[in-house]
Amino acid sequence: MRKLILLATFFLLVVNVQAQKYACVNTEYIMSNVPEYNQVLTKVNKYVEEWRKELEAKQAEVDELRQQYQQEAYLLPDNLKQRRQDEIRNKEAELRNLQQQRFAPGGDLDQKRAELMKPVQDRIYNAIERVAREKNYAFVFDKSASATLLYAGEKYDISNQVLEILGVKPTSNPPEGINSGSAARSPDTKSSGGSKNKQPDNMEKREVRR
Q1: d(C-alpha 78, C-alpha 209), whole Å
Q2: Three-state SS annotation for 49-109
Q3: What is the pTM of this model?
Q4: What pLDDT sits at residue 152?
Q5: I need a surface site. Which of 9, 164, 165, 181 has the fewest CB within 10 A?
Q6: Span 179-188, mean pLDDT?
Q7: Neighbour count for residue 158 (Cβ, 10 Å)
Q8: Are 117 and 40 spatial neighbours (Cβ–Cβ below 8 Å)?
Q9: What are the structural domain ranges in the chain?
């Protein structure tokens, strides 16, 4: 009797999983078609240019101090030599610290990019959620290059439906079929036995996720 109950339970679970619908999107393709995303990139590039000029000015200051010292060192007493050397070292340390502050991982550039990108990302993922709820999809995979979906039939790609929700007319066609570096398969992606998924080494994919 117990075996029959277990078999019945297992059968119900299998039927339930198979009844679930799957879809996929390409967030890179979606973002490339959203004007706000390109506006954010333009703003970020302006910050990058501004900070590079700032660093170049600091580097020029260090170079000038070093050149002056080299030209005058033979005339300076030891105590002034030491003072000038210390000044150069301090300016070099300031330059290195500023470089780290601006461009190191987690620095000003990463923070500014995340700050400006968040509203765009939120809008995109809200649109994905809306399409998924309207179409009754249990799961929506991201098939961008760094995601985990190995293959998706074109008819299951809802990226253009997401763009429609966003009020955006696509300027290009979404990438088709197999992602770079993956092997071809012919799944029925409407069921859990369809799309073959590989567990990623790093589940961080949400640079764009809330």
Answers
A1: 58
A2: HHHHHHHHHHHHHHHHHHHHHHHHHHHCCHHHHHHHHHHHHHHHHHHHHHHHHHHCCCCHH
A3: 0.62
A4: 57
A5: 181
A6: 35
A7: 23
A8: yes
A9: 20-34+117-205, 40-109
- The residue type at 18: Q
Which stretches of the chain are DSSP H helices? 2-19, 27-33, 35-72, 78-103, 108-135, 159-165
The residue with tokens 């009020």 is 167
Instruction: Enter the tokens of residue 85.
Output: 């050397």
Helix, strand or coil, per DSSP, at residue 142: strand
Cα angle value 170/172/177 (rounded, 5°): 110
How is domain 20-34+117-205 classified at the architecture level of CATH? 2-Layer Sandwich (3.30)
- The maximal CA–CA distance of the chain, rounded, in angstroms, is 102
Structure-model confidence comparison of residues 170 and 73, the more confident one:
73
Return the residue matching tokens 């101090």: 65
Judge contact between 150 and 179, C-beta under 8 A.
yes
